[in-house]
Amino acid sequence: MHSHHSHSGDYVAHGADPLEDIVDRAKQLGFDTYCLTEHMPRFDKKYLYPEEIEGVGNEKAIDQLKQNFSRFLGHAKQIKTREKDNINIVIGTEIECCDIDHIEYARTIIKENRDTIKFTVGSIHHINEIPIDFDQLSWNRCLASFNNNLKDMLISYYELQFEMLQRVQPLVVGHFDLYKLYLPRNTRVDPLSGVVCENENSVVVSEFSLIEMWETVRNLVIRNLKYIKLYGGTVEINSSGLRKKLKEPYPGSDICQLVKKFCDGRFVLSDDSHAVAHVAVCYLQLREYIVDVLQLQNVYYISQEDPEDTVTVKSMSIDEFKNHKFWNNSMLSRCE
Ligand SMILES: [Zn+2]
Ligand SMILES: [Zn+2]
């Protein structure tokens, strides 16, 4: 089994446990491949998070992010070599994509470290330069920056994602619909304009697929998926959405249907762990999602035959996936 996206408390402020403990847990659970993809540093102080600045100030915090990242790469390499007979560790990085400058900076970092970084998880965490997965207040501020027009906010998200896809061509596209994390389930929206409001036409967002409701948004999703297919990327099914109490993983089944149709169903699995308890979290539900809800024919994964090799994308049949010995591990538990 595989996970293509993880973090640790050693190298990111919002992580909880040491990287070594996370890898130990991945070994215990019987992963074949576990990808270490720490966030790449941010270089603009306006994108620092409060916990990064605390006690050190802006300049030092920026320096620390850089140092943390190079220490991460060194450590990950050590683990990879040491564990090569136990588990296949693939080293990558998750791109933040705060804005275009940051995407360009990401390209430089990837180029500079191309001997170590074998692939990237391309994720969008900001819209209009405001983080959308940090807390409710920031998310609300982001919506307000679009005059409370949720449709415009999603359009901006998928436009920035397209910029990132074109400039970086990440092998794995991260949490495809992250904007839903802090979208309150009882939000009412005008289906025509996309404005969050309570008028006689407004509907509750949790009762509808926003992708089906708004053709403009759907067309952007389709354009992005066709592009991912064109350069040979994959879309992760990320179980952290379930860990964070969303109804579905990222992406939701409405987008997954489009991935099947326009991106050959090129899905990989990720737990996006930030702590030991997150390793393989909700994977049993992910299995049901893949087998019963999405009814996929294949599951994709990243493969690296030799530690020095470049990585390739491979697939296994759904029967191979369903019958994998990983699922028999008694340590695997359902998430609440
Ligand atoms: Zn992310
Ligand atoms: Zn992540």
From TrEMBL:
Keyword set, alphabetical order: Amino-acid biosynthesis, Histidine biosynthesis, Hydrolase
Reactions catalysed according to its record: L-histidinol phosphate + H2O = L-histidinol + phosphate
All copies of domain PHP, residue ranges: 4-240
Pfam family, one: PHP
GO BP annotation list: L-histidine biosynthetic process
Any one Gene Ontology molecular-function term assigned to this protein's record: histidinol-phosphatase activity
PANTHER family according to UniProt: HISTIDINOL PHOSPHATASE-RELATED, HISTIDINOL-PHOSPHATASE
Protein name: Histidinol-phosphatase
Organism, scientific name: Kazachstania africana (strain ATCC 22294 / BCRC 22015 / CBS 2517 / CECT 1963 / NBRC 1671 / NRRL Y-8276) (Yeast)
UniProt gene name: KAFR0C04390
